[in-house]
Amino acid sequence: MALTLNMTVNGKARKVTVESNALLSDVLRVNLGLTGTHVGCDTSQCGACTVHVDGVSVKSCTMLAAQADGATITTIEGLAAPDGTLHPMQAAFKEHHGLQCGFCTPGMVMSAVDLARCEPNASEEQIREWLEGNICRCTGYHNIVKAVKTGLTDMQSGGKVAAE
Amino acid sequence: MYQFEYQTPKSAADVVAALKADEDAKVVAGGMTLIPTLKQRLAMPTTLIDLRSVPELKGVREEGGTIVVGAMTTHAEVWADPTVKSKFPALSYLAGKIGDAQVRNRGTIGGSIANADPAADYPAAVLALNATIVTDSREIAADDMFTGLFETALNEGEIITEVRFPIAKRAGYAKFRHPASRYAIVGVMVAETDSGVRVGVTGAGPNAFRVPEMEQALASNFSPDAVANIKVPADDLNSDIHASAEYRAHLVTVMAKRAVEAAMG
């Protein structure tokens, strides 16, 4: 069954015609070319596919695109400013080298930005608990946690440009 | 995934009518169990009936000493709800320990209860808090709800619309969770309610159950010591690569003690 869906993706109105069983992750990557959203496990465990749907983080590999009809979606491509200035959370990941191979990074950043909504002053313990739905196969958690801590602070102070 | 039709009815009555019209249709709430099941081709519904556009299924409200949670309310919403947090901290805590943040943003209380996964958290709360499951056609008492492995008292084509939790005098939840899935290997909620002390156990058996012996002991002495020497028999408990039936039986006692501690604040 083909469905025509309307979504706002990274601030732009998008219309896609997809099968009813298409996953949101596939539609973002294949139909809309937003390949920053990664598919790691495809089983709802690793969190690499995390995007925001109507302001909350979800695993886009475990959501039908049909379920996002009418929704506002933000992917990793939608975080930075139009002039390329990184979002404070992205800048913090860069500053603290919160990545090794980088595959999990888009999901980590999207999850961390959602943490700012729920617990803007999260402790290290709360950050680690929050990131349970995101797996880093390189096991680079220490710098990820440091990055998230800095990112949360910088988001409250209005952000700063990553140290070059 | 196999092909299916997709519908978004706008009222509970329309959902029920759609289910009546097609016996191979399936309801999807948050989809946290159903979508992985579809991806593995373990289910082949003709039609997915999505509950997301039914406004009456959403939200939390307080109604004369009862917290009423709409079936489509997500775990994250229950966790963060100010009324639940202040009046019912154990319920907020339980919701905040389900799965991970992204799962809590999609998974719903109605979906969790209807699916009746033996390791799901909510069934322990339903039993311990003596909740009432309200469906499109009737009310189901907590003690009648969970009937077996992934089995409930719900009839074909019947949907949960809301869950009513009478506010307990005090309640606590403790779970020994699987470190990867965060499902309960054993989870115990202990509550002092208007209908006495109730102990709900999930994760241990094929479906959630109460432990009358612990309830009686706690009624006369609400302290961790009261349950410390009460063991449930391992005979009917689950055994898998994560924990043997004997270990689960042991964990029921340990989690019950911790739940009492939590309830005592």
Mean pLDDT of chain A: 95
Major sheet size, sense and barrel closure of chain B: 5 strands, antiparallel
Share of helix of chain A, binned: 25-40%
Shape of chain A: globular
How can the largest sheet of chain A be summarized?
Answer: 5 strands, mixed
State the helicity of chain B in percent bands. Answer: 25-40%
Number of strands of chain B: 14
User: Mind telling me the CATH class of the largest domain in chain A?
Assistant: Alpha Beta
N- and C-termini, Cα separation of chain A: 50 Å
CATH topology of the largest domain in chain B: Uridine Diphospho-n-acetylenolpyruvylglucosamine Reductase, domain 3
> Which regions of chain A are unreliable across 5 or more consecutive residues at pLDDT < 50?
none
CATH topology of the largest domain in chain A: Ubiquitin-like (UB roll)
What does this structure look like?
- The complex is a heterodimer of chains A (164) and B (265).
- Chain A contains five helices and five strands.
- With 164 residues, chain A is an alpha+beta fold.
- Chain A has two domains: 77 residues, Beta-grasp domain (Ubiquitin-like (UB roll), Roll); 69 residues, Orthogonal Bundle (DNA polymerase, domain 1), CATH 1.10.150.120.
- Chain A has a five-stranded mixed beta sheet, with helices on both faces.
- In chain A, helix 2 packs antiparallel against helix 5 and helix 3 packs across helix 5.
- Chain A starts with a strand and ends in an 8-residue tail after the last helix.
- The mean pLDDT of chain A is 95.
- By secondary structure, chain B is of the alpha+beta class.
- Chain B folds into two domains: 51 residues, Uridine Diphospho-n-acetylenolpyruvylglucosamine Reductase, domain 2; 207 residues, Uridine Diphospho-n-acetylenolpyruvylglucosamine Reductase, domain 3 (2-Layer Sandwich).
- Helices cover 35% and strands 24% of the residues of chain B.
- Chain B contains twelve helices and 14 strands.
- Chain B has a five-stranded antiparallel beta sheet. A four-stranded antiparallel beta sheet of chain B has the order 11-12-13-14, sandwiched between helices. In chain B, strands 1-3-2 form a three-stranded parallel beta sheet, with helices on one face.
- The termini of chain B are far apart.
- The interface between A and B is medium-sized, with 29 and 28 residues.
- Chain B: It holds the Pfam family FAD_binding_5.
- Chain B: This is Carbon monoxide dehydrogenase medium chain.
- Chain B: One of its GO terms (molecular function) is FAD binding.
- Chain B: Keywords: FAD, Flavoprotein, Oxidoreductase.
- Chain B: InterPro entries: CO_DH_flav_C, CO_DH_flav_C_dom_sf, Diverse_Substr_Oxidored, FAD-bd_PCMH, FAD-bd_PCMH-like_sf, FAD-bd_PCMH_sub1, FAD-bd_PCMH_sub2, Mopterin_DH_FAD-bd.
